[in-house]
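User: Here's a chain of 244 residues. Predict its fold as tokens.
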Amino acid sequence: MKKFLISLILALCSSVVMAAGGGETLEQSGADLNDKASLQRGAKLFVNYCMGCHSLKYMRYSRVASDLDLSEEEVQRWLNFTGAKFGEPMLAAMKPEDATKWVGALAPDLSLTARVKLGGPDWIYTYLKSFYVDPARPLGWNNKLFPNASMPNPLWELQGIQVAEMGKDANGQPIVTHLQMSSPGTLSAEEYDRVARDLSNFLEYAAEPAALKRQAIGAYVVLFLAFLTFMAWMLKTEYWRDVH
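Assistant: Prediction complete.
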């Protein structure tokens, strides 16, 4: 039994390392679902830089408006560039047949990315900061966290262009040891960190919109349980007073 438990723990640890991207350390995104301004900025960034290829098929424009305190006019003006109706899902601008023709495959839907990736928003945040130029790749880009990612850096103009310093792992295989900025972007490092954080925050929200309401009612639930505990204590005290 003891050997079985040890084996199970080791297997779980190995799965965690693999899921995190080969043992890469994730940077802390600082994502906060209570930060509505960050979620609004993240939504705008997503539709401007990601939604050309990627969809959020489980998210509707009307739900974003309701959750992020935006009006229908604001959503349709600033977030809807595909001509979709207010109550329709947020689908990519690129048609599936065009994606297959131009890129080779349909870009994955990102609705649940923050839930399926270990680390959630931290994984997304680290991924957005880990692109580097790689002439050996078909699109000229690679990613330190997610090697051989089949997409270019959509935010390269904001972040700038990074190059990789290579080394070797314990088996003598080449690995990226460090990323160095070779050409700065339009944003400073601190400003780009906020961009990556806002996008990560928005995708965490998109993966589970109900989390906003769940957090909002959490305080009321705790207060109710505290009140219920107090009433139960009062009832116990009154009951045992008569018994004694």
